[in-house]
């Protein structure tokens, strides 16, 4: 009859309990993988598992074991480390391949739209009044000044002038187009001019006639009798342009000494007191 060695116990239920734990772990792992696959986060899960495995493998390879995770040697720790790095790399590549750039941009746009403030109500602008523009033709009478001219006239004495034709202003009408904006004049354009009254040019006649020089009368021819005038006696009165009494106020050119008697016409006006005697004083 054999006796069991000390420290060892034959427990028939221990294998069953261990198998149950393994089965429960497999079921839980399968459920987790199913949930991750359905939610579309399988690549993130692989990355997470790879990071955990990398940490456990690095710890076991450094210390010698990680009994909590059933890693009992450095060799197994190195294998776990390599598997974790591989899983993390594969998961990262799969995650990058499944991300749609358009979805990222859309997500950013949606986020920016959510952060925008509420739209302000549109501002009601005050309508700008339309200016009232009108155009009108106007007629303005304007005087036309007359011109002046001069002509020589031989019938008028030199040094004098006479207005022979009086000047008169004319008249014209200026037709313009006037533009007004809201009642205020903003432009003016001359369209045409119409002359209604022609101006009259003023004419001035300037005299050019020279004055007539009258020649002095010729002296009377000497009469018979020695050249003495027959209208006088008692003294010889010569024939001349003028004869005055000697010693008087006359200026000649001929003089006679009196007294003398006037017997004819007193052509030299020698007798002053009507007594018939000349040059007696």
Automatic annotation (TrEMBL):
Positions of the G5 domain: 129-210
InterPro entries: G5_dom
A Pfam family assignment: G5
Region described as Disordered: spans on this chain: 108-132
Keywords annotated in UniProt: Membrane, Signal, Transmembrane, Transmembrane helix
UniProt superkingdom: Bacteria
Residues spanning the membrane: 21-39, 45-64, 76-94
Name of the protein described by the UniProt record: G5 domain-containing protein
Organism of derivation: Mycetocola zhadangensis
């Amino acid at each position: 009859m054999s006796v069991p060695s000390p420290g060892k116990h034959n427990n028939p239920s221990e294998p069953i309990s261990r198998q149950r734990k393994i089965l429960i772990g497999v079921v839980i792992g399968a459920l987790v993988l199913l949930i991750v696959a359905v939610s579309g986060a399988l690549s993130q899960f692989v990355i997470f598992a790879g990071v955990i495995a990398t940490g456990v493998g690095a710890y076991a390879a450094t210390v010698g074991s990680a009994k909590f995770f059933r890693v009992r040697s450095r060799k197994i720790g190195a294998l776990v480390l390599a598997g974790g790095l591989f899983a993390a790399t594969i998961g990262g590549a799969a995650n990058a391949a499944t991300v749609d750039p358009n979805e990222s941009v859309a997500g950013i746009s949606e986020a920016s739209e959510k952060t925008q403030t509420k739209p302000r109500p549109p501002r009601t602008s005050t309508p700008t009044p339309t200016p009232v523009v009108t155009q009108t033709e106007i007629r303005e009478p304007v005087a036309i000044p007359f011109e002046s001219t001069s002509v020589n006239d031989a019938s008028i004495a030199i040094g004098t002038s006479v207005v022979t034709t009086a000047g008169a202003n004319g008249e014209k009408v200026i037709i313009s187009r006037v533009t007004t904006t809201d009642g205020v004049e903003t432009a003016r354009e001359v369209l045409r001019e119409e002359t209604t009254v022609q101006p009259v040019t003023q004419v001035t006649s300037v005299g050019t006639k020279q004055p007539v020089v009258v020649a002095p009368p010729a002296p009377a021819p000497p009469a018979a009798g020695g050249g003495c005038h027959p209208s006088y006696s008692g003294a010889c009165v010569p024939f001349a342009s003028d004869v005055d009494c000697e010693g008087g106020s006359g200026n000649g050119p001929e003089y006679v000494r009196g007294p003398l008697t006037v017997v004819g016409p007193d052509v030299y006006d020698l007798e002053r007191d009507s007594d018939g005697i000349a040059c007696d004083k």
